TrEMBL record, chain A:
<protein>
    <recommendedName>
        <fullName>4-vinyl reductase 4VR domain-containing protein</fullName>
    </recommendedName>
</protein>
<dbReference type="InterPro" id="IPR024096">
    <property type="entry name" value="NO_sig/Golgi_transp_ligand-bd"/>
</dbReference>
<dbReference type="InterPro" id="IPR004096">
    <property type="entry name" value="V4R"/>
</dbReference>
<feature type="domain" description="4-vinyl reductase 4VR">
    <location>
        <begin position="106"/>
        <end position="171"/>
    </location>
</feature>
<dbReference type="Pfam" id="PF02830">
    <property type="entry name" value="V4R"/>
</dbReference>
UniProtKB/TrEMBL annotation, chain B:
<protein>
    <recommendedName>
        <fullName>4-vinyl reductase 4VR domain-containing protein</fullName>
    </recommendedName>
</protein>
<dbReference type="InterPro" id="IPR024096">
    <property type="entry name" value="NO_sig/Golgi_transp_ligand-bd"/>
</dbReference>
<dbReference type="InterPro" id="IPR004096">
    <property type="entry name" value="V4R"/>
</dbReference>
<feature type="domain" description="4-vinyl reductase 4VR">
    <location>
        <begin position="131"/>
        <end position="214"/>
    </location>
</feature>
Amino acid sequence: MSFHLAPQADLERGITTLGGRRLVFHCHHYNVFLQRTIEDALQERAPRLLVAAGMEASRSMLQGREGEAQSGSAARVLQRAADTFAAQGFGRVDVRQLGEGGGQATLDHSHYAVGWVSRWGKRPAPGCFFAAGFLAGAVAVAYRLAPERVTSREVECVAAGDERCSFRVEVW
Amino acid sequence: MAIDERVIVETVTGMGLAGNEEGLIPAFGLYLTNHYADFYNRISFGVLGALVRENPELTEDAVALLTEAAHVCAFHTFGGIMSSVEWDALVQPMIESREDWVRGMMAVVNAFGWGRFRVAELLPDERLVVELRDSYESSGYLESYPRTDGPRCFLANGGMAGLMNLVYQGDITRRPALTEELYREVFSDPRSFRSRERLCAAKGDSHCEFVVERMQG
Ligand SMILES: [Zn+2]
Ligand SMILES: [Zn+2]
């Protein structure tokens, strides 16, 4: 990993950061249980919160990091985001079909899908909200777009019985 | 040999926990993520705010939901770690007493980015007091929301109760299977441990502090 991909750890304070934002280790049990708690509590409003929070988190980190890294092309920024996503344990996402107009991304071994299925089996609708938000944030940062212009939705999900997880990112 | 926190923190950090070729981090019998504090804070404080605005009487229930998620987290994460080959290799050789299971686990957590935990008091089978500095929940809270009059470190708070329940209620030292049945048995026992966040940086204290005791002595 090159320097700007590697999280910085302050062992004395128990703080790890990437792009100036804090990272914390958590396991799939907590991740999917917390998501389910929020879905149960907020019902149809839950996806908006979960996706928006994923977008905000990835955008803050990527903006901080790309500021340090002096970026390069938008495609490279997107690929670095995908590499970071994999290094953080969320799965392998293919971002090569994403561009400044949005597009499709596919995700193999999605942490949230794997975690959900291992705990509860299949769910009726896609469940990788964090990943959807992450991709929207990555597109916004890579193409320097106002975040309000970017939306992202998971259209197929392993946790919902599909063969893979895939996402539709739209730029308005 | 007593628990050497420095060695544990440096070794766990040095494991370089990062995604494999599948982009997953299987470790301690779990799938880990090196996730965004911003994400957890927004969804946790977001759902709490929404529920409380709609019905202020639901505050306690909303906090209970987040606390339950923290109990689940502790049961599986701490339980998984304390049952793992990594624990056997690194921490087990330093353990001299049951209390060292608590101290050893605190040391491992100090490598997770949650802030720095310190055991201030540990009465075997009875009481745990833990101080936490730089908690990601309180610092994230203060970045986005006005100072509160109640504590906000729901994950850390429930986590501390979970740790005591694993060590003194579920007897993790015997390596039980971490099933849903065991979870319910341990946490629904009227004598099981609960934690209270007595000090919290989110309400203006210099650090956070948790007091863990049995519901019924
Ligand atoms: Zn999915
Ligand atoms: Zn606190």
